[in-house]
Prior knowledge:
12 helices; alpha/beta; three-stranded antiparallel sheet; TIM Barrel; about 20% strand; single chain; 15 strands
Amino acid sequence: MYMSKNSLGKSFKDYYWIVSIDPNTSPKELMIELSTYCNYDCIYCFRRRWINKQYRYMDKSLATKILEEARNIGVKKISFSGWGEPLLHPHIVEIVEKAKNLGFEVLLNTNGYFLDKYIDFFYEIELDEITVSIDAPHEDVYRLIRIGGDLGKLLKTLLRLKEKKIKEARGYPRISVQFTINKYNYNNLLNMIKLAKKIGAYKLIVSNIIPLTKEIENNLACYMDKKCIEEVEKIKLDIARISIDTGIDVNLPNFNLTYSERTCPFAREWALFIRSDGLVTPCIYYAYNWRNVINGIEREIKPVILGDLKKESLKNIWLNKMVLFRYKTHYMDYPSCLDCPLQEYCTLTLDNTVDCWGNSPTCAHCPYSRDMVRCPL
């Protein structure tokens, strides 16, 4: 398999097939990382195993350039998320307002600590959605998991927003809650649905952790713990009942490593990830160099860079850079490392450079593709 040399990458040959990309297409969504700084130190956060950490804010001028070009080529949605807390950016107000004024659907993913400073502004501009990470309905467990956080402060802000929306009969911004399930908090799942209702959220997104070490996987990962999985299975009917009663959409993740159906959320949504330095990657998972452990196998994740928006256009990157990789990712044309009987003996699975089918880079062991882990797109 190789990229076609006579078509600027807009078509390629894959064995006996010649596939072309429509030059009029564009990404439908961009996840833009405004900051790699964070005021939290969550116990499962991949920042803890980030190799050669890079702390920065995206330049305001670069953010403006990206948003304007995205509008011109037909991007529909912007998600402000990434490896840091977006509300720490010194120009967050101007950048979010610019995105809304350009007509994008805008989602903000936040730990919520600084929401009290900006919630009135987000209300006035009718920000489309705020996804808030809340890993427990009670302060003690919340602080244990989300080190540096203040649940009471966050809930006070969200309740104030809810009351304001009710009083003025407004629907935006919508609130969704991301709950990262683990062995510390799985018994709070039903109460999390009730909390989501209390603060005016419409959706509860449940995600597994991506373990950073073997110890964390053994001691914290729900998908590795029989009791945790059984307890979640046991309350599924209760989850459905409370979900119907409260109107909260509850999305449970996959807990089965041998689950065969795979799909890439970024490829499915025709999305790209843009780092705070302007480098474009296929997803948040392959944005930086870091390490994790899944099913007892430690792997090094190496960044997959599609292009640099400081030097080239978003359209050019979309049409001409690693088209074959994005095509194969869309159809998940990769081997499946996480349920392979040879994974503990295989050296190819130890990073994402190449797999046993010859794909380079590879998504063969991605937990997002198995719906074990979720990201707000």
